[in-house]
């Protein structure tokens, strides 16, 4: 994605392809890992993700227009709220590794300061929504408890996630075979994947084909922290059902076929620690129809020009 393009304009304010690219970064990395040959499903999911992000940014800009009027009268979002959100994103999207976020921003030629501002605007939009519908009926205890049960998995400390999994690694370049190419190595990975799906033994195939250090152990790795994996691989593995064959998954050095054996997820925070957030989630659900109508009204009276296709 070209980072110097204008993705859309909203009432004369620009949304850049750079902003879209940064927000898309984790999802693009996941899709590229999951679809080494790209193809129509990769294109479909990428386009859907891009459309979702762009529309979120357009809605953000519509709401920010209203906030700027209030800002002139002294309205302000505390810096600590922005910092808390940044820490949440680093924890959940980048396995707690701030450097991974910085590297992702570097790919899009965006500074940390610019990303912080992007995050600040996102938080302002959330605050504006809460205030707009503050007259919504307060959640009752049963609604709070039900929403907590839905949300607690997403709110857990993902840096404490651990799994056991089997892995077959086929390098992009095979030093022992000068005739091998990334294309033939991918083809071999696909062949091994088909054998696994047909019921052949994972340990035997790992011992035969894997260039991984754990090949002699049947590719089995135990008690692997989520933070030891790349964010895109972690997102795929920790969302998989145990026993399902995954892959071939691509990274810069080769192709991985994996099977999750066990997932031990990090602890969820007690309700007492996240009650305010859960309260907000319940209120947002109760007012979702009114929010959609509000946004539609803002869009009807705005000048929106979408340039990124």
From TrEMBL:
InterPro entries: PPIase_dom_sf, PPIase_PpiC, PrsA_foldase, Trigger_fact/SurA_dom_sf. Keywords: Isomerase, Rotamase, Signal. It catalyses: [protein]-peptidylproline (omega=180) = [protein]-peptidylproline (omega=0). Residues 170-262 form the PpiC domain. It comes from the Bacteria. This is peptidylprolyl isomerase. Transmembrane segments: none annotated. It comes from Haloferula sargassicola. Gene3D superfamilies: 3.10.50.40, Porin chaperone SurA, peptide-binding domain (1.10.4030.10). SUPFAM superfamilies: FKBP-like, Triger factor/SurA peptide-binding domain-like. Pfam families: Rotamase, SurA_N_3. Its EC number is 5.2.1.8. The gene is surA_2.
């Amino acid at each position: 994605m070209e980072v110097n393009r204008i993705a859309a304009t909203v009432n004369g304010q620009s949304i850049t392809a750079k902003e879209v690219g940064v927000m898309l970064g984790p999802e693009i990395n996941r899709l590229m890992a999951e679809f080494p040959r790209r193809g129509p499903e990769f294109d479909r999911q990428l386009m859907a993700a891009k459309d979702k992000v762009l529309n979120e940014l357009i809605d953000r800009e519509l709401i920010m227009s209203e906030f700027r009027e209030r800002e002139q009268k002294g309205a302000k979002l505390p810096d600590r709220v922005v910092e808390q959100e940044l820490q949440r994103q680093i924890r959940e999207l980048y396995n707690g590794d701030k450097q991974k976020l910085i590297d992702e921003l570097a790919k899009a030629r965006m500074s940390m300061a610019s990303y912080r501002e992007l995050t600040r605007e996102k938080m302002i939009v959330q605050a504006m929504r809460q205030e707009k519908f503050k007259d919504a009926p307060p959640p009752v205890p049963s609604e709070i408890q039900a929403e907590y049960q839905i949300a607690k998995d997403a709110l857990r400390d993902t840096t404490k996630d651990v799994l056991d999994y089997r892995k077959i690694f086929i390098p992009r370049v095979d030093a022992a075979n000068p005739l091998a190419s990334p294309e033939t190595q991918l083809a071999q990975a696909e062949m091994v994947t088909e054998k696994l799906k047909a019921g052949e033994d994972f340990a035997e195939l790992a011992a035969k084909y894997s260039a991984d250090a754990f090949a002699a152990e049947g590719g089995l790795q135990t008690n692997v922290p989520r933070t030891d994996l790349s964010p895109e691989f972690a997102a795929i593995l920790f969302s998989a059902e145990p026993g399902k064959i995954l892959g071939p998954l691509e990274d810069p050095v080769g192709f991985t076929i994996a099977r999750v054996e066990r997932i031990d997820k990090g602890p969820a925070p007690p309700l007492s620690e996240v009650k305010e957030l859960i309260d907000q989630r319940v209120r947002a659900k109760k007012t979702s129809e009114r929010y959609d109508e509000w946004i539609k009204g803002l869009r009807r009276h705005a000048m929106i020009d979408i340039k990124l296709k």
